[in-house]
Structure formats: structure tokens, C-alpha cells
Amino acid sequence: MGIDLGTANTLVCVRGEGVVLAEPSVVAVQAGTNKVLLNGKAVGRVAKEMIGRTPGSIQSIRPLKDGVIADFDITEALLAYFISQVHHRKRFFSPRVVIAIPSGI
After folding, report:
1. Structural fold of domain 2-87
2. Are strands 27-30 and 18-24 parallel, antiparallel or unpaired?
3. Cα angle at 80 between 13 and 69, to 5 degrees?
């Protein structure tokens, strides 16, 4: 599995299947607590659709700014949700992890 964690969108790719998930890099949280709404499922398209349509007690956060993680906790929730979405498709027994860092950082 490969994850392209982008400022605007996140892509998840699985070997032999290609891109299996392409979602906006947005998370909707309860203001003040940063608790992810909808039991941790207000991520991606769902969170983006909430922008401008929710009361002030709900915030849609883009946890990456200028190619850098700006909010680690929210980014963790975003990654956990996206991995769980792909993980349910197929069981991973020994995932391999590769981390890429932009050269300008």
C-alpha cells in the first residue's frame, strides 16, 4: 500500500490494483476538543461537504499546510481512517513502509 498524503488530496494505492482511494485531505471536528465527528468518520469527502454548512461548533480542518503536517493529531485521524477504509478490502499481513520527504523541507 502506498499513501500520497497531499495538502489538497490524499491518494491510497494498492499493488496490482492502482489507486483505490482518492479523497480530500479534510477532517471535520468538534471545535475546542478536536474530536473527529461521526465516530471518526467525518473525513475526506464527508468533511469537505460540511465546509460552510455547519454551526460554529464544528470545524473542517486541513491538517497539512504547504506540504507540511500542521496538525499531527488530526493527520493521525485522517491516516487511520483512510487506512481502515482500504484495510477492510483486503488483509495485510506484513505491510512495508516507505516515507518520502519533499526536497524543499
Report:
1. Nucleotidyltransferase; domain 5 (3.30.420)
2. unpaired
3. 85
